Amino acid sequence: MATAISVRQVAKRYGAVEALAGVDLAVDQGEFFGLLGPNGAGKTTLISALAGLVRPDRGRIEVMGCDVIDDYRNARRQLGVVPQELVFDPFFTVRETLTIQSGYFGIANNAGWIDEILANLDLTSRADTNMRALSGGMKRRVLVAQALVHRPPVIVLDEPTAGVDVELRRTLWQFIRRLNRDGHTIILTTHYLEEAEDLCSRIAMLRAGRVVALDSTANLLRRFSSRVLKFRLGPGPGLPEALARRATPAEGAWTLLFEHQAEIEQVLAQLRLAGCAVEDVEVGKPELEEVFIRVMKDAAPP
Amino acid sequence: MIGFRTLLYKEVLRFWKVGTQTVAAPVLTALLYLLIFSHVLEAHVRVYGSVAYTAFLIPGLVMMSVLQNAFANSSSSLIQSKVTGNIIFVLLPPISYREFFAAYVIAAIVRGLVVGGGVLAATLWFTPLDFAYPLWILVFALIGGGVLGSLGVVAGIWADKFDQLAAFQNFLIMPLTFLSGVFYSVHSLPTFWQRVSHYNPVFYMIDGFRYGFFGVSDVSPWRSLAVAAACFAVLATLTLLLLKRGYKLRS
User: Which helix (H) or strand (E) holds A14?
Assistant: First the structure.
């Protein structure tokens, strides 16, 4: 599989703050790639370096094989960036904004594609509305549209759903998923871990400017996540000593953590043997949030 | 090329859409200066022996409008884009720093010429004016607009806040343009102030521009042309260097 994004040994320092401390990453073409990390982990700096907005102190970045500094013209043509901030130019209408953005990328007649993007993002009825008159969610859609005017093979979304309502989030992800199916490489940063879990096939976790985890989403979930068993005990004998040591009481119920699904069987067998009346059994699925918290804890400086 | 053309078009469209503020208002301001100063001084002052004061004043006001509005256009566009964050839309595309420079400076010149043309058209009613050497008029308007447009790019990139830009405008641009012989011939000044005026590059732009109308000026138009062109060369080089380094635009 050809590489869409290649980041090698990229470092960037702002005074005393080490925003990126030698990041290595490679994203294949066609991937839906997640970039996660707490605030200040370096996600936005990395994306800015990718887009040529920030010049790294060292290291190299290529987009579809084009160096973002030496061959910036070709690199930028390959890249569509949806910025995190809700920015817009108050002088223009939606259509003017998109026509101008197309021109910046060297495309003179783009009306057909612009109409298509507008339709896909539910913006057709707002095409001739001034940017100033749009709601926040609508402005967010225009930002997505602006990133797509030049049909970039690689699309970067920097927290695109921050402060966005459920309906828009749904249409947005439908559209982005379709772009991904059509072969676009998607790079996503988000604070909503369920979103990343749903959408991304591979995930990198950043902390203090370093990649602290990089694997497929499925592997990350398998590798780190434990299973949770939650149950109540009916009238009868209490929890056996061996289990009580491992269990945590919560709201009249007990929770137990496992590394492997098979252990659940053994616990249930022990409970039956002790004559306990087990009620309301729930088995929790592994969640990315839990993985995230554990990775961040492990990566914390001592 | 399309990228450059689009940025230029967008910069012109930007000021054109708010024309009341960017074109009509400065034309009105220039007219007010003309009304007041010509009313007070017309009967008392003659310049170059034969030129009536109102006729003398008009080219000065036209050129001052060209210069101030060229500066205002590039500087305010950039600071607005930086403060609101939409500067990112011109930083993400494959536009070179040279195209960036050319688009902002040419748009500034266009704004200067539109406002200057407006002032000229509006003041023509007051007094007949010679157009001795139209080519000189055009050359000085273009170079002057280029100098101030380029300075506007520097100021717009340097300033982080609107008040910093206002300081630049109030403490540098206004004194330079007002103390440049717009309202008087420097020959009417005491020797000391005459000498000081000769260190003001804007003086040469106004003087050369005025030469195009009357065929008379305080200094030779060639000398004025040399000073104005040198100013442009220095400022353009500085601006291009800053843009190439990504000063305050690409960290």
Answer: strand A3-14
Q: Sorting pLDDT into bands at 50, 70 and 90, what band is A143?
A: very high
Check residue B183 and give its pLDDT: 86
| B13 at A interface, C-beta within 8 A | yes
Question: CA separation (Å) from A285 to A222, A289, B212?
Answer: 11, 11, 83
Q: Which value does ipTM take for this structure?
A: 0.90
Strands A227-233 and A210-216, bridge-based pairing = unpaired
> What is the average pLDDT value for chain A, to the nearest integer?
87
Find the helix or strand (DSSP H, E) in which A74 lies: helix A72-77
Q: Are residues A216 and A238 in the same domain?
A: no
Query: How does pLDDT run across A89-138, given as a tens digit for each residue?
Result: 999 999 999 999 999 999 999 999 999 999 988 899 999 999 999 988 88
Instruction: Tell me, yes or no, whether A163 lies in a domain.
Output: yes
- Helical spans, DSSP H, in A212-261: 217-224, 241-244
Pair B150, B233: CB distance under 8 Å: no
Which residue has tokens 């602006």?
A146
Domain-embedded: residue A122: yes
Residue A273, domain extent: 226-285
Contact of A264 with A229, CB cutoff 8 Å: yes
Chain B interface mutation, best of A104, A142, A154, highest count of B Cβ atoms under 10 Å: A104
The residues with which A154 forms a beta bridge, in sequence order, are A79, A185
Is the CB of B9 less than 8 angstroms away from the CB of A107?
no
pTM of the model: 0.87
* The last residue of a domain, from among A130, A151, A172: A151
A205 half-sphere exposure, CB direction, 13 A CA radius: 25
Rounded Cα gap, residues B243 and B203, in angstroms: 28
Q: Which residue from A54, A104, A106 is facing B250, i.e. has the nearest CB? A: A54
Count of the separate structural domains present in chain A: 3
**Short-list A279, A230, A234, CA closest to A255:** A230
Which element (helix H / strand E) includes B62?
helix B53-84
Residue with tokens 């749009």: A134
Alpha carbon distances (Å) from B47 to B34, B132, B181, B187:
16, 16, 12, 9
